[in-house]
Amino acid sequence: MSENLLEIKDLYVSYGGIKAVKGINIEVPKGEIVTLIGANGAGKSTTLRTIAGLVKAESGSIMFKGEELIGVETNDVVSKGITLVPEGRRVFPDLTVLENLKIGAYMRTDNLDADIKWIYELFPRLEERSWQLAGTLSGGEQQMLAVGRALMSKPELIMMDEPSLGLAPIVVQGIFDIIKEINNQGVTILLIEQNANMALKAAHRGYVMETGSITMQGKGVDLLNDESVKAAYLGKKK
Amino acid sequence: MKKTTRIILSIAAIAVLLAVLLFLQANERDYGMVITIIEKSAIYAVVAVSMNLLNGFTGLFSLGQAGFMAIGAYTFSILAIPASSRASVYYATGINPIIEHAELPIPLAMIAGGLMAALFAAVIGFPILRLKSDYLAIATLGFSEIVRAIIASPQMNTITNGSFGLKKIPEFPNLLTVILVAAICIAIMVLLINSSYGRAFKAIREDEIAAEAMGIGLLHHKQTAFIISSFFAGIGGAMLARFMRSIDSNTFKIALTYDILLIVVIGGMGSVTGSVLAAFLVTASKEQWLRFFDEPLVIGGVSVPFFKTGLRMVVFSVLLMVVVLFFRRGIMGQNEFTWEGLFGLFKKIPNLFKGKKKKEAI
Question: What is the pTM of this model?
C-alpha cells in the first residue's frame, strides 16, 4: 500500500456535552478515493469539519503529510492542500460562476488562467455559464461549481460532504464520474455519502460509521458485498 | 461596444464634467446653491461608498458611520484650526496645552482624522465583529452615540470644546478640490473592491461557512473591511467639517447615519456607482426641499429647529418605505455603471440620462 496522505488517530469531538465522534481511526492513502458512509448523525460531517479546522477536536491526532492539523486555523489547512466541498454545495449565489472559481483560489497568488481553463475542460457546462450568477444554476451545475471551486485551490486532498444530496440519479452518476476523473488526475478524495452503493463502487477503501464510531472498514468492493452493510445501508434483506 | 469607444466616451464625459465644474467655479456668485449641493453630495458619496463597502459588499450591517465621521471631523478640526485663532474658538473654557500648538498641514490633518477613526474601529471591531446582523447594528449604533456623548461632555471641554462646538475650521479652497478628494477616496475603495480582498468580502457576504471553507479568515477580513470603511468615514467627516466650517456634536446625530443609509439603500447595496448616483440625487432633492422652508438653515447648518428635522425624517421614512417595498434592490442593484447599460436605459427612459451622467463623473 502507498503512503498515507491523511491519518486520523483516536479522534474525539464533542459539541458541549454531546460526544459526536468517539475515538475514530481513519487512513487515507495518497491517490485513492476513501469513503465514509453511515446514517444521519453518525458523525461523518463532524469528522470532515474537524479536519478542515471548522470544529475543534477534543483529543486525538490528525496527521497530514506528517504534520499535525489539530489546532491549525482553516485558512492554514487550505494552504496546506486540503479543501472541503461543504454539504449542500454552498456556492456564492449572487456572484458569477467565474467569481466563484476565483474565490476558490483565494489562498493562491499565482496566475489562475490555466486552472480556470482546466476546470472548464472538466465541466464544459460551467464555461457556457461563466457569466451567470451561481444562484441561477441547477442543483447539478451548482455541485459542479462547488467541486470546481474547491479544485481551484489546487488541493492534494479534496473532502466532499454528500455531493449527491438532493440530485437526480442521472446527475448523481455524472458527479461520481467526475469524482473518478479528478482522482485519475492525481487528487486524493475523502468522500462522505449516504448513497452507500454509489460511494462504495467508486471508492478504493470504505469506512462505516455509526453513532460516532467506526464499525467496519475494508475495500470498497468488499464492503459492498458485506451482508450487514447491505442490510443497513443498501436496503437488501439478509 | 468596443473598448476604445468606451474609453473615448469616458474621457468625453469627464471633460464635459470638468468644464461644467470649472464654469460653476468661475461663476461662484451666481451658482452658490448648486456648488453647495455638489460639494455636499460629493462628501456624502464618499461616506456612502464607505458604508456600502461594509453593508453592501461585506454584508456587515453597521450603523456606526456618524460616530466614525465625528471622530474624523473632530481630529481633523483640532489639528487644522489655525493656532492663531484657537484662543477665540476655545474662549469659554480654554484649550488643553497639549493640543494648543499641535497644528498639521490640512491634507495631513485629514489623513490623521481618517487614521483616528480607523484606530477606534480596530479597537472596538475586535469584540463587536463577532456579533451577527442586528446585534452588530445595535452595537455600532451604541458606539456612535457614545462618541457623540463623550464629545459633548463637559470633561472634554478643553479638547472638543464640549457643547460649544468647533469653529474657524479651514474651508475647501474651491469646488474642484472637494471633487478631487472625493474622487481619490472612492477610486481607492473601488480598487479594493475589485481586488482579491474585495472578492473575499463578497464571499463572506454570500456565505460565511463556504467562505471559511475556502480559507478566507472571517474575523480578519471583517476587521479589515471595518477598519477601511471607518477610515474613509473619518475622511468623510473631515471633509464635512471643512464644508461646514463649524461643527458640534449634534452634527453627528444618528440621523446622519440614516441619511447615509438611505443613500446606500436607494443606490443599491453592493453598487459603488449606485451609491454615488444616489448621493447626488438624495442630497439635491433634500437641499431643494429645505430651501422652500428656510434657506439659512442649510448654509449655516448650526442650530436646526426641531420641526424641520422631524419633517425631513418623515419624508425620508416614507421614501425608505417606498424603496424597500417596491425597489428593494435600489437604483443599481449590485450592478455597476457601464456605457452599454446606459445606452440600453437611454433607449427606454430618456429623461434619466442627466442623472446617470452625473454619477459617471465621480
Answer: 0.85
